[in-house]
Amino acid sequence: QLQLVESGGGLVQPGGSLRLSCATSGFTLDYYTIGWFRQAPGKEREGVSCISPSGGRTNYVDSVKGRFTISTDSAKNTVYLQMNSLKPEDTAVYYCAVRRDRDYCSTNGMDYWGKGTLVTVSS
Question: In terms of Cα–Cα distance, which of 24, 106, 33 is closest to 73?
C-alpha cells in the first residue's frame, strides 16, 4: 500500500528555517515525480517545488526560489523540503504528492497525496 506521511511543520519566526520530511512506503521513490504543494487559509492549493524521477530536474514556484530546496534520500524513501528565510506568507499546510506517468508536477495530476503538515510563520 502506497503511503506518504509529512512531518516537520510547526511555528517559526520570520527569517527562520524548517525542514519538512515526507516519508514514503509501498513504492520505489526513484521512479516517481515528487512534488511539494501548499494551501494557505482561504486560498487554492499551489505547487511549491517538484523533482523529476531520480532527481534529474527540480523546479520551484517563483516566490520560494533561492529559499527552498527539494531533495530525496532513496535509501530512506524520504523526500525533504528545506525552507529558509521563511516569511509570513509561507504559512500554509504543506503536502507531498507523487505521480508515475509524467516528469512534471501539477495540482490536479498527482496520483497520491499525504495528509499534510502545518507551517506557521509568525512572530
Answer: 24
